[in-house]
Hints:
By secondary structure, the chain is α/β, with parallel strands linked by helices. It has helices at residues 2-14, 27-32, 50-54, 59-71, 87-92, 98-111, 122-136, 147-156, 185-192, 217-220, 222-237, 249-262, 271-278, and strands at 44-46, 76-77, 116-119, 143-146, 169-171, 243-246, 267-270.
Amino acid sequence: PDAVFLAESAIWENKNVFAMDPASRMDWADYTGTEAQVKDRADLVYFVGCVTSYSGRAQGVAHAISSILNSVGEEWTLLKDEWCCGHPLALTGGTGRIKQTAKHNVEAIEATGASRVVTGCPGCYLELVHEYPKALGRVPGFEVLHFTQLLDHYVSWGLLKMGKFEEKLTYHDPCELGRIGGVFQEPRNVIGSFCTSFLEPTENLENSNCCGAGGFVKGVDLPLASALADTRLKALTRTSAEVVVSACPSCYQNLLEASQRKGNELRVLDLSELVAQQLGLD
């Protein structure tokens, strides 16, 4: 399909799936007023990802993650020249070009001396954890965490001093984070640490239904992606929740759009944004 060809061309020529100017990848920090850091050396690298960098609604996720990293005193950095992780290439069959993408990003990360890499994007997480070692024939010299896993560590270490959240809340398991990535408990641990009314949807964990944003569905079939989002949102609202959280910038955007189409008052947030709000960082 044309959308697949265009995405692959965009990644190869512009180093991002949206064919945006690669020099504007870090403009989100200016747009959101974020104290982002770019250093030669750091203990932790925040790998932002294309969606969170370039998609306006998702830039709040980058702001939230950066603000939380600052608030707990992490010695962290953005990459000076982050490329698309290559996950869209894996989804569309353009796997022949993943090795060069992997080599660029891994060498950039390793040059900082960081022992950990964190990302808020499940697609980036999967690519860094599973595809890069296969593409390069070696295991990179750093640990990869999804941000919910890092938040779970922060909770267990007592680094997040949050007030109780008393609105009724439900959680959508992103396909690529949960069913594929195996990250189920960590976001629930974080939610349970401050939320007094957590309501699980009927379809959750391994049986969570797709919101329509992942797997490049939205890139090739927008009506299907919207229909899936409407169906998933309906299931989430059956919990009687007032707030829906997820842990994927694409899920967040698609569910938010579904909520706006319905004209309801449901709040849709990424978990990083909710935690930042509870910490008074928004």
